[in-house]
Amino acid sequence: MREIDPLQLDSQIARAAHAQRRWRVQLRYGPASSVCPLGCSGVAEQKTLTELRRMEGTGFAEPLGRWVLRLLTERTCATELSTVEREFRLRRHVVGEPVRVELSLLQLLERALYHAAETGAWLGEYLGSSHELARASRALWRRRAELADELGHEFVDVHELPCKDPDAIAETWLTDSADAYLSLAPHELGELLVVAQASTASDGWPGKLTPRTVVSLVEDPGLLRGLRLQFTRVPRALGPASFLRALTALGGCWSEALLPVQMPFALVHDPQHLREHTYGAVFGLLPLLPDFVRVRLGLSRSRARDHVRALATAVLIEARALALRVLLRRPALGGQALGDAFEHWTVRAFGFRLDPPLAGAIFRLRFDDAQRLAGLFLAASLQRHLVETHDEDWFRNPRALDELRTGASAVGTPTVEPERLAHGAQDLLVSLRERL
After folding, report:
1. pTM to 2 decimal places
2. Which of 47, 275, 341, 423, CA to CA, is 20 to 30 A from 250?
């Protein structure tokens, strides 16, 4: 069996990771091959993982193994990933309500989110047309389950998850935040989606949602100095919550731009992006600060309070949706019937039932959902620290911005202690309750 040169493998991983990212972008935004461009790289192979297992304890084996597992998963599931994106973005459906038109599922969902008065009609057409998408999504996770069976589920969990037992963290969050959520009490999916867009918080935002206008909301010499941001895409403008998603994307790009380039790729970059999700959420939570809304959006104190309440509601719904997705990962990998788990956990998360066949069509699972939830909790703790240390307008304080940049520039780890996540969940809950 060949001896692995860690630095050579790291260089190969870096090239393969960039190719994988380009392929993922093509899947989302343009024509792409159903063959992930990693098959001939010599990296995304089970034999490479086997060889790395022999190096366990060397300090470099685990980060290399995390990347090889992620790239192997992408290559193994390439056909299924491509099918899911094709069903969601490209296949067109003729619908009759509220008008007769031919649209993709993505376009149907966007209309359901954007046209609040017609949400029920558009959402009904989406759900009625999404059976093939649901089937493709379940096929993707069955393929993932087969790979986990081959490698060992414990091995996959250790190299893929940010902490031990994220299910317990997610379930505790659903329990602890239930009273705050029930005070909103959306009674069905359409109402939930409308509330999640925070449409009543529409004042003060830039007229267009573009990378430039998003950067303008946080632009500060101390924050962006000397950085070359690879921030070129923003979500569709479907409501004020779209600006939260765009700020989250900006924060992830910002943290990535701060990474040291001279260190080995696998030591600096987490294939599940816990670090990017954490600092992305720090940016995404900024509009929950009343001072930010008053200063950046130019609103009065009373109007800012109303804005923050609507945006906090959107964050609460998103956090509970993330917890739902985390709790569906294990059933999706074969622990139990996904449809039954979907029905059970959607009732726990949102208080209403969704049919089991819709699993895979709505609240679709992503490979890094556990990191997204963990990043949100860590960001809540970081924001609380910045507020307590530098006051609520820390986003204008040079010392706070230097502290934030210093922390984001440090090489972190792809894992976190469950206790820190539990504290972060409480910090987020306290913050949301203060604003609801």
Report:
1. 0.95
2. 423
